[in-house]
């Protein structure tokens, strides 16, 4: 039962420690969110809490503020341990702790995750930290090495527990919990409560207070919602067509990770758009300047993560494009709420891959509104618009003053070279256009990379009554063609199948169910992946490190048997891929047969892939619009990559 609270409580009502309350007030926070109002009193009392709340409801402050208020600042050892599924979330939670503890002298918080140098983490842990926020794999490593000691631990927080379950960390979490003192306080937060999470709560939490926050999932009637089923064109080419054909004022494009904001902004700039990235690594003064430029029309397109765009209210925003589909309905509602505000009309466009259609249906059910399928603008429509814009540029230029001088130059050129005026005009037009072709070429659309797309289309053509009844989505034992690859890491490097699966699934964005046979040899390994892997993904994998070794993935030149991704372990994602050292086909961990899309969720507010040098983008089809002004560049701090996989050791 919830404690009795005022109708509109404020943070000063809770009895937070004075320095913590002062920091909150300095940040401008006055009224707590629902999850904060319900949870803070329980944690201040020292009770265990089992909280169900979605991302974006303010749960970080819900546990950080009361736990900080209970800190003993005379001690320098870890008193609070927070486990998070991804390095991105670990960093964000650590930053939140630092912000809320701004008035606590001598306070130290440390995020620990794979991919960061051990020596740096050793030095910080030896110096002393009161709060550790980490991913399960790296926390386990430090506990085994003895560099992280939990003798004085007061509180343990499991953040996004269902996501850690889905990623296969459940056994690691239980092992870590067994290393904590029996007197520690536990707060477990999860968006959903599958049986495995309930089992953990019953086993490890003592008489927990249960808090469940209902999420508002309504969308404004002024927003027109549409979706595009990702097939044929590459997503970037499709995005370019939409931006060319849609009459927009300003656009926010949502992606899952901070790294992707930078990469997509760079690629759109290469195609002539005034696009800028907005993510959690952007300094506050730069963020404010960017939003001001958006308001004034100096920037037309913002590429943002959910966290970075929170609270953004810019009247110019006419379109919201979900380049990456959100994995919870609340995030979708928050995203499209950036347009159609105060009675204004707006457009929301959602990119959906064939394997993400269940997420589309979930959004429609939660919002109680249908989302219409949109057709991409045809090549003819795009070309007609480009010609129209080109003609308008000529008309606008003819209306300007100062043409007399150029008229005299061209008349002289025409007399001296005996060239017709129309040919001179054509040469000047080509000079203005540059190397990029003005018009798109008609070309066949090759299917986007998706191992299951053919099977999905076949299933959609069936009548519902003819589907087999023993699977939520499909029970077909169909197979997909596989290709065998060689990677430069093996048994002598200490690698295990789980390391390989985690790295490939994380970096390629490939659901672990689509990773086939793994054969670990002494100094290399062989792994079967779906045939037709895109070159850019293989390029990312070549630079990925596992067990300290760069993968340097390349085709093995051997045949690989077709693979059935439906042969996966059950258990709602809590299973672990069996060892496949030296032969024997194992089953992937994952959400059971057909239960997860091939593109892995990147933790809602985002895990992320390693930074790499952005590549100049030029579409084979000439997907580049007439030149637009570029914004001034802004400095961007490289962001760490995600700590996904089971377990992933990028040391």
Automatic annotation (TrEMBL):
Q: Which domain of life is it from?
A: Bacteria
Extract the ranges annotated as region (Disordered).
Answer: 442-477, 556-651
Kindly report, in one word, the top-level EC class recorded for this enzyme.
hydrolase
Chain ranges of the DEAD-box RNA helicase Q domain:
9-37
User: According to the UniProt entry, where does the motif Q motif sit in this chain?
Assistant: 9-37
Q: Coiled coil among the record's keywords?
A: no
> What chemistry does it catalyse, as a reaction equation?
ATP + H2O = ADP + phosphate + H(+)
Q: Where is the composition biased (Basic and acidic residues)?
A: 453-463, 599-621, 638-651
Q: Supply the InterPro entries for this chain.
A: CsdA_RRM, DbpA/CsdA_RNA-bd_dom, DEAD/DEAH_box_helicase_dom, DEAD/DEAH_RhlB, DEAD_box_RNA_helicases, DeaD_dimer, DEAD_helicase_DeaD, Helicase_ATP-bd
From which residue to which does any coiled coil extend? none
Name of the protein: ATP-dependent RNA helicase DeaD
Origin species, per record, is Thiothrix unzii
């Amino acid at each position: 039962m919830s404690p009795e609270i005022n109708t509109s409580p404020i943070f000063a009502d809770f009895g937070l420690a004075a320095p913590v309350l002062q920091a909150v007030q300095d940040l401008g926070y006055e009224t707590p969110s629902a999850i904060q109002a319900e949870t803070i009193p329980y944690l201040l009392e020292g009770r265990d809490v089992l909280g169900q709340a979605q991302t974006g409801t303010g749960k970080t402050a819900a546990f950080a503020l009361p736990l900080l208020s209970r800190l003993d600042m005379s001690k320098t050892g870890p008193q609070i341990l927070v486990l998070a599924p991804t390095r991105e979330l670990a960093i964000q939670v650590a930053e939140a702790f630092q912000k809320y503890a701004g008035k606590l002298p001598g306070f130290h918080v440390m995020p620990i995750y794979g991919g960061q140098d051990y020596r740096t983490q050793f030095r910080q842990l030896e110096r002393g930290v009161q709060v550790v926020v980490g991913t399960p794999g790296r926390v386990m490593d430090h506990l085994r090495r003895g560099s992280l000691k939990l003798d004085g631990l007061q509180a343990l927080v499991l953040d996004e527990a269902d996501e850690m379950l889905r990623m296969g960390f459940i056994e690691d979490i239980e092992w870590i919990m067994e290393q904590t003192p029996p007197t520690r306080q536990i707060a477990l937060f999860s968006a959903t409560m599958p049986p495995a999470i309930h089992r953990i709560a019953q086993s490890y939490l003592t008489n927990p207070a249960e808090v469940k926050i209902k999420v508002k999932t309504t969308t404004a009637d002024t927003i027109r919602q549409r979706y595009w089923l990702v097939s044929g064109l590459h997503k970037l080419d499709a995005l370019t067509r939409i931006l060319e054909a849609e009459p927009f004022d300003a656009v926010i494009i949502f992606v899952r990770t901070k790294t992707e904001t930078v990469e997509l902004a760079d690629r759109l700039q290469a195609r002539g758009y005034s696009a800028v990235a907005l993510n959690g690594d952007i300094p506050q003064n730069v963020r404010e300047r960017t939003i001001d430029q958006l308001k004034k029309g100096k920037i037309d397109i913002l590429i943002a993560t959910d966290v970075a765009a929170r609270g953004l209210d810019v009247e110019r925003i006419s379109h919201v494009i979900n380049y990456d589909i959100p994995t919870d309905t609340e995030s979708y509602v928050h995203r499209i709420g950036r347009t159609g505000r105060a009675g204004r009309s707006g457009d929301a466009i959602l990119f959906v891959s064939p394997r993400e259609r269940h997420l589309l249906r979930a959004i429609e059910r939660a919002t109680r509104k249908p989302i219409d399928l949109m057709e991409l603008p045809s090549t003819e429509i795009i070309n007609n618009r480009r010609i129209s814009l080109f003609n308008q540029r000529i008309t606008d230029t003819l209306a300007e003053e100062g043409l007399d001088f150029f008229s005299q130059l061209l008349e002289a050129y025409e007399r001296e070279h005996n060239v017709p005026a129309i040919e001179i005009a054509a040469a000047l037009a080509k000079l203005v256009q540059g190397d990029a072709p003005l018009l798109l070429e008609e070309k066949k659309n090759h299917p986007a990379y998706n191992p299951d797309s053919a099977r999905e289309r076949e299933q959609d053509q069936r009548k519902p009554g003819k589907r087999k009844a023993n699977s939520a989505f499909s029970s077909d034992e169909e197979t997909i063609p596989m290709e065998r690859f060689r990677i430069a890491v093996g048994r002598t490097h200490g690698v295990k199948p789980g390391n390989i699966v985690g790295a490939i699934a994380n970096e390629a964005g490939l659901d672990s169910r689509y990773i086939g046979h793994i054969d670990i040899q002494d100094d290399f390994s062989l792994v079967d992946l779906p045939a037709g892997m895109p070159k850019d993904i293989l390029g990312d994998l070549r630079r990925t490190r596992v067990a300290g070794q760069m993968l340097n993935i390349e085709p093995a030149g051997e045949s690989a048997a077709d693979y059935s991704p439906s042969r996966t372990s059950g258990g709602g994602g809590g299973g672990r891929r069996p060892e496949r050292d030296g032969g024997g086909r194992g089953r992937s961990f994952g959400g059971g047969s057909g239960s997860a899309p091939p593109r892995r969720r990147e933790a809602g507010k985002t895990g992320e892939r390693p930074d790499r040098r952005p590549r100049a983008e030029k579409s084979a089809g000439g997907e580049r619009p007439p030149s637009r002004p570029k914004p001034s560049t802004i400095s961007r701090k490289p962001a760490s990559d995600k700590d996904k996989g089971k377990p992933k050791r990028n040391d």
